[in-house]
Amino acid sequence: GGTIRFEDVHFAYDPERQILKGVSFEVPSGHTVAIVGPSGAGKSTISRLIFRFYDVTSGAITIDGQDLREVQQETLRARIGMVPQDTVLFNDTIRYNVRYGRPSANDGEVEEAARMAQIAGFIESLPHGFDTEVGERGLKLSGGEKQRVAIARTLLKAPPILILDEATSALDTQTEREIQSALDVVSKNRTTLVIAHRLSTVVGADQILVLEAGRIVERGTHAELLAKD
Ligand code: ADP
Ligand code: ADP
């Protein structure tokens, strides 16, 4: 489970400048909602509020009806998985980096997640390139490979809620397509909020919200939004 609700959320980092100006939406349990809009609209701010890096100025955010202000940040981090635009990996093996998603996982579970994300071939390697200390275990991962490590970590963690914040936007078109299909596997039947720049990358979402200057200006399915233009 895990229904996320925003109820007339206002937010400002600094009182002089409103960033979110009355944002209301719901991500029903198991569904995928996407937020698209221009740079600076406030999209990433929404994901930061869900993790309680900041609290709303007014209005409320709830998960399964519980106000986030009553939920500890650690609890939220345990329940919510995130694949960011650029994944920062620990300078330890890929196996270690995947296991970080759920430290209690056994080797078989780590390997299964790595297999599903198609990184099983190099889980004993280190991610940041060759140096004399690590010799042949040093592998310089591409952006797409790093995203696959993040995906394997998320598969292993299996969080009820998932946030994909521009998770494919740093990749070339071909890699983006490959990673997108891996993300579709992770987000299937999971409460998922996708943050994206372009409408074309969120075709499969149950609902798309268009955010501009802190306000939702349109909402609908991909087909509905295309028909409006
Ligand atoms: P988006 O994800 O749509 O590009 P953001 O949510 O990252 O937009 O940012 C919305 C606005 O908030 C931007 O104008 C940005 O400069 C501002 N902003 C983002 N983070 C901070 C911060 N920590 N302090 C002050 N302003 C911020
Ligand atoms: P919820 O927490 O919303 O009940 P589930 O835990 O049932 O969602 O998982 C949602 C999706 O993620 C399903 O399609 C399931 O196959 C997949 N999934 C769940 N756990 C794992 C896991 N450990 N490894 C790989 N896929 C998983």
Topology at a glance:
Elements: E1 4-11, E2 20-27, E3 32-36, H1 43-50, E4 58-63, E5 66-67, H2 73-79, E6 80-83, H3 94-99, H4 107-116, H5 143-157, E7 161-165, H6 173-187, E8 191-196, E9 207-212, E10 215-220, H7 222-228
Parallel strand pairs: 3-8, 3-9, 6-7, 7-8
Antiparallel strand pairs: 1-2, 1-4, 4-5, 9-10
Helix pairs in contact: 4-5, 5-6
The structure holds adenosine-5'-diphosphate (2 copies).
The side-by-side strand order for the widest beta sheet comes to 6-7-8-3-9-10
**Chain-averaged pLDDT:** 92
Oligomer: single chain
**Could you give the count of β-strands?**
10
Helix content: 25-40%
- N-to-C span: 35 Å
* Heteromolecules bound: adenosine-5'-diphosphate
Low-confidence parts = none
User: What's the overall geometry?
Assistant: globular
Number of alpha- plus pi-helical segments: 7
**Derived structural class:** alpha/beta
Name the beta content range.
Answer: 15-25%
Name the helix and strand elements from N-terminus to C-terminus, one letter apiece. EEEHEEHEHHHEHEEEH
Rounded Rg: 18 Å
* Biggest sheet descriptor: 6 strands, mixed
Subcellular location: Cell membrane
Family: Belongs to the ABC transporter superfamily.
Organism: Breoghania corrubedonensis
Domain ABC transporter: 4-229
Keywords:
six-stranded mixed beta sheet, four-stranded antiparallel beta sheet, 10 strands, 30% helix, binds adenosine-5'-diphosphate
